[in-house]
Amino acid sequence: MELPDFDTLKRLAATEPHLLETLLYEQIEAVIETANPDQQRRLRGLQFQVDCQRRLAKNPIDSCLRIVNMMQDSFFLMRSEMSRLCYFSEEDELPPLPPRDNVVSLQDHRHK
Fold this sequence. Notes:
Organism: Aeromonas molluscorum 848
Order of helices and strands: HHHHH
Strand content: under 5%
Number of helices: 5
Largest sheet: none
Radius of gyration: 19 Å
Number of domains: 2
Number of strands: 0
Structural class: mainly alpha
InterPro entries: DUF3135 (IPR021482)
Pfam families: DUF3135 (PF11333)
Shape: extended
Protein name: DUF3135 domain-containing protein
């Protein structure tokens, strides 16, 4: 399925957001369907988590930040596991994790 051009997507977002949501879920489903059956269940579970974060968000920016935080958490968990495996298999150490102090939490920001 081919996406509409940018101007059409922008118009849908402004005037018919429910149609844009429908298009989004059609695209997501098309991508999940291309995965092998073993991965489809995991992808649907991940999409469920993303959808939950979108519903909990107070606005689109909050939604985006929640999803970014999910991705960062997943990345840091994967990196931690890889580091642990390398520790047991090699002498070399990975560079330290970057500090997360450059990430602004919406919750902290709202209370200022």
